Amino acid sequence: MLSKLCKLCAPVQLLRLPYYLHSKLQSITMDSFNQRLKSLIVKLHEINALKFGNFKMKVGINSPVYFDLRVIVSYPKVMGSLSRLLWEFSNSSLDPFDHICGVPYTALPIASIISVEADVPMLIRRKETKDYGTRKLIEGKFEEGDRCLIIEDVVTSGSSILETFRDLKTEGLSVTEAIVVVDREQGGIQNLASHGLKMRSLCTLTQIMNTLLEKGKVDQNTVDQVKNYISLTQIPLKDYVPLKEVSKRNRLSMSFMDRAQETKSLVAAKLFRIMAEKRTNLCLSMDTTNSMELLELASKVGAHICLLKIHIDIIKDFSKDFITNLVALAKEYNFLILEDRKFADIGHVVKLQYSQGVHEISSWADLVTVHPIPGPGIISGLKAALEELSQQDRGCFIVVEMSSQGNLNSADYKTAAVKLAMTHSDFVVGIVCQSSSLVPDPGLIQLTPGVKLDKGSDTLGQQYNSPEHVVLNGADVAVVGRGITEAQDIIGTVKEFQTRLWEAYEKRISPNE
Ligand code: 5BU
């Protein structure tokens, strides 16, 4: 695949030597290589790509040294010599490969330079998958089984490399090796090895410190501080969802019955089965303040819905009897109850909000909604409440993207929220969102609110799409509120939603029938 001539051997670039001569020349040029590496290290220090002080790392630990190799894009000569040195150092002893792929974003320009100068095809991993069209993780031309080498700038725990590794493997590429510019020596090599990936680095943090000391750029005290930090701070892999948890099957073309096999949650499997048996993916949202009205409506439409969504905190005449009756209706008509509580506090408080107070939500709601803003503690809080009650058949939907106009769910927030959902997929049954690309796993259920018979909006920011639109955009269950509760003919309207949503789902799973 690669050219037989060494194009990237910078000192002899113009000669373009055959490899056998290259290897003889290698020992002579070793000194020059080391000199160039040392100059690069000094240069990186000069341009502030490497700083000393007290820095909070992505993984939440403080560090006396910080790398910000993103700045190299402003120094093309540094970027060029760094890329060439990395390639020269690793090139001759790599496993065979057909493509290279830089870990987004800092390693992208490095990989691009190597790709152009060594004439190796490159692939790009999308950090956020497209919100429209096909869910493509990797851009570029490749065949299943092609081999790919990963390129990275700085490695701490190795989690960013593993995310790229997972996506490349998900798309059918074979990946055995990664090359990196700097190894911070904090467990990256070991973490990657435990997932079957080799890693080689152009330089280690220790080498960098020794060079800067030799060149008079740092004092012995700083070197000792960094060495001490490395020896004491090994960083484990955090929040990494391994490949086996991401099914290669596309949920949009799978039946609910098949997907019941893919979930780890008892209640998600139950919901999938109810949908398939009753041929309905309609969730009715009853935002009424009167308990009798709610029970009456639930008994009228119970046969046509898979899920009943309520807001218990708006009921004016709440009582234990109301809950007893509601649970009885759910049993009689075979639907699940979703309390749209949108928990959003720290784990300790959420645990109490879920199981205590007048409502004792965990005792009757099969499912609840949760904002992931507080981080994983919120899931642990809910689970802790259930452990005390020894409840097994409960779950939650994570709110990743809201239907309201101007919502603040940024792309980064959504990516992190989906990751949280996948890490806790024993308890998280699905994701509340508007677009199919946010639900990567067939075991997770996409719940989409903001549905009416026609596209439109209300006066307070709610935005509506039609049943066909939301199902095509990935909705497994569509939430309809006022589109039904304010209709003249409630039963007729419920039936119309049921039919249109179900037909759209059937068309989605078998487009040619
Ligand atoms: P509507 O009457 O169909 O607009 O009611 C929608 C319901 O869905 C309402 O209970 C909201 O609280 C709920 N909802 C929503 O509309 N949009 C969202 O993004 C989320 C929930 Br999350």
TrEMBL record:
Binding-site residues, substrate: 287, 309, 403, 462, 481-482
SUPFAM superfamilies given in the database record: PRTase-like, Ribulose-phoshate binding barrel
Gene Ontology biological process terms in this record: 'de novo' pyrimidine nucleobase biosynthetic process; 'de novo' UMP biosynthetic process
GO MF term (any one): orotidine-5'-phosphate decarboxylase activity
Superkingdom of origin: Eukaryota
Annotated Orotidine 5'-phosphate decarboxylase domain residues: 281-497
Pathway it works in: Pyrimidine metabolism; UMP biosynthesis via de novo pathway; UMP from orotate: step 2/2; Pyrimidine metabolism; UMP biosynthesis via de novo pathway; UMP from orotate: step 1/2
Gene3D superfamilies per UniProt: 3.40.50.2020, Aldolase class I (3.20.20.70)
Keywords from the named record: Decarboxylase, Glycosyltransferase, Lyase, Multifunctional enzyme, Pyrimidine biosynthesis, Transferase
Record EC number: 2.4.2.10, 4.1.1.23
NCBIfam families per the UniProt record, alphabetical: pyrE, pyrF
Name of the protein described by the UniProt record: Uridine 5'-monophosphate synthase
The species this protein was found in: Gryllus longicercus
